[in-house]
Amino acid sequence: MAVPKPASKGVVGMKITARMGLLGCLMAGAMAAVKIGRKSRRISFKGLSVVITGGSRGLGLELARLFAGEGARLALVARDVEELERAGLELEAAGAEVHIYQCDVGNQEDVERTVQAIIGECGRVDVLINNAGIVQVAPFENFAVQDFKEAMDTHAWGALYMIRSIAPLMKRQGGGRIVNISSIGGLVAVPHLLPYSMSKFALTALSDGLRSELAKDGILVTTVAPGLMRTGSHIHALLKGQYQKEYAWFSISDANPLLSAHSRRAAKQIVNACRYGAPRLIITLPAALLHLLNANFSGLTTAATRLAARMLPSPVLGHSSPQTGLASGSWAAPSFLTRLADKASLHNNELPIKGH
């Protein structure tokens, strides 16, 4: 019985080379297709109507500045009238067309009324940025159920109300862009930020699900998951328990340039993600690494967050009243350790007018 001869090393090498070449061609083709698809989705914001919730200060204001710089017409939505007026005056001085609307996005009737007013003045909505946010910092034991409800109202229900009011208009227009500002806390739960994480997880799920369902209508949905950003909003954080200690660790972390992104840099990334209709954007390397670690080595993430929770301030008895960051100062914060974040507060319209 004849035994087949093994293929020579030269033949085997040729086969491997051919397969590697085919694989390389397929990868190159896939990358080219992605690049072409990305380029085809690119839009210019000149003349487009852009609605930004939480647009009066912080990241929302930074986004408004960039959209205004590209010739967009702005509709800023926020709860504080004075902040809205200051933001509007700044943007108008730079040559932007700005409309301001006082609205609590957690109130469905308020949202529907505001959207109708926007349509009446602007005629259409091409881009919706769901950016309105609230940050509460405390141990789980010091949070009340109402704290979780308030976070859900702002991040999850507020975004849903805006989308339900605007998406039908976008559909009639033939398309649009929706950007939902979630958080790395909406992908990985963070100790002492449970209402925030719970509501941001809900927003991430809503955003990712809508991306698939609204694509048929030409509406592209982007989910943004930033890590820490130096927007200056740390002074508006609501703190419970040992609130001064909670404010110290939170504001110092927020100001650390190794952990946090400059608000303008983060805003530029978000505007570009919107421009190309990117499905998801994670901002800052630490946030991307944390997401990768949690997805692949959840045991390590669990161990790390357990350690972090032990190092954070312990709870106090009862559900204490929340204190703002501004009212929670100590020797540790504000200090040179929070300088960069404090500087952002001044730049991004976060500081209240004296006497108010």
Automatic annotation (TrEMBL):
Coiled-coil residues: none
Q: Would the keyword Oxidoreductase be found if you checked this record's keyword annotation?
A: yes
Query: Which top-level group of life is the source organism from?
Result: Bacteria
Segments forming domain Ketoreductase: 48-232
Q: Which UniProt keywords apply?
A: Oxidoreductase
Q: Which family does it belong to?
A: Belongs to the short-chain dehydrogenases/reductases (SDR) family.
Protein name per UniProt = SDR family oxidoreductase
Organism in which the protein naturally occurs:
Pelotalea chapellei
